[in-house]
Amino acid sequence: MRRKITKPTTAECDLPKYMGFLLCEPKSATCTHLSELSDMSHDRVNRFLQRENFAPKDLFLEAAARLIFEGGTLFVDDTVRDKPYTHGTALVGPDDSGKHHQIVKGINLITLYYTDMKGYNLPVNVRICDPADGKTQNDYFVDRLKQVLA
């Protein structure tokens, strides 16, 4: 169930504007950054967030409500977060990096995305690969795919 706004407002910042910003901004999703990109002040964005008290689930449900779950595409992304100076830590292991074009030490993350016919996309399944499992990236992908299709 999608969350309802608690109080009517005349504020410039609203859920569609804020959600659009979050979906388009991969690195710096802050009130300050949104105010720099728009004509809203930092305080207006901050007041909106304090008043509504959104949780991550609210953003997911709002974004999922816009998707058309017919005729879309499922695709996988495997990302390696470089951790060259980490020693003896769980989840850190050797992985093939497309960025460096070689094997690097890092944390491997498998994300399954759904993209609908209008081009909207949403991550639907995320998994950190554990080198201790002995599974390949393909094994993780098949596991993620089975979960989504179930």
Strand residues, percent: 25-35%
| Relative helix content | 25-40%
Overall number of domains: 2
> What class would the helix/strand composition place it in?
alpha+beta
Tell me what the structure shows.
This protein has 150 residues and is an alpha+beta fold. It has 2 domains: 52 residues; 77 residues, no CATH class. It is 35% helix and 25% strand. Strands 1, 2, 3 and 4 form a 4-stranded antiparallel sheet that branches. Helix 2 crosses helix 3. The chain is globular, with a radius of gyration of 19 Å. The two termini are 21 Å apart. The model has no long low-confidence stretch (mean pLDDT 81).
List keywords for this structure.
alpha+beta; 5 helices; 35% helix
Write the layout of secondary structure elements.
Blueprint: H1 15-24, H2 31-37, H3 42-52, H4 56-66, E1 73-82, E2 92-97, E3 102-115, E4 121-128, H5 137-149
Antiparallel strand pairs: 1-3, 2-3, 3-4
Helix pairs in contact: 2-3
Concise summary:
This is Transposase IS701-like DDE domain-containing protein. The protein is 35% helix and 25% strand. The protein is built from five helices and four strands; from the N terminus they run ααααββββα.
